[in-house]
Amino acid sequence: MRSPAFVRRPLCAFALLGLCALGLGACADTLQDRPAPPSVLEPLVMEEHLPVYWLGGTFRRLGITDVGRDPSGAYEIQYGNCLVGGESTCVPPLAIVTSPDNSFLPGGDTARREVSVRGVHGRAEQGGRTLIVATGGVVVDLYADSAALAHAAAETMVAIGAPGIPGAPLPPPLPDTGFGERPLPSQQPPFAPAG
After folding, report:
1. Residue 53 — φ and ψ, nearest 5°?
2. What are the helix (H) ranges across the chain?
3. For residue range 7-59, what is the model confidence (pLDDT) as tens digits?
4. Can you tell me the distance from the alpha carbon of 19 to that of 163, in angstroms, rounded to the nearest whole number?
5. Which residue from 160, 145, 179, 7 is spatially nearest to 75, judged by alpha carbons?
6. Rounded to an integer, what distance in angstroms lies between the CA atom of residue 83 and that of residue 17?
7. What is the pTM of this model?
């Protein structure tokens, strides 16, 4: 037995309204991050063991969207909304990573070329979209969606919490600081009280 037309039309209208709501929800940009609050920069400013490089609160209209520190002690600052990714994954238009291990230059056997960045030698990879610069006791990696953006960031980066002038010469690399020879805090056994 079929429902009368006056019952079917409201049901169809509600179903259509529900599908429209789902469709509009699917159009929402789930890859966009909110700008990071200034408080997330506090640990970087207070870092005493290494200079953490950044590009300011915004760079080329890209605001800071995430700040993180990995177990090795490297700091990453992401600029701009995710271009690729989803939950727990984000590939931003620009990221700058400061690593305390100056004995390790990432990249392995990938195609690369030597470049000069503000008076120090660096490496360009992925068509210039990745720049790796050893300066002072750290290695700074720049990952960008274009070579022009990576090079502009390299000319602008300064240590956060220290006086610096974008474009000024960078400190020459220090000899191996021995960071890779020390175990990470996560690799140390927990302290056991005596007695």
Report:
1. -85, 145
2. 5-27, 42-46, 147-156
3. 555 554 544 445 444 444 444 444 455 667 667 777 787 788 889 999 999 99
4. 56
5. 160
6. 31
7. 0.74
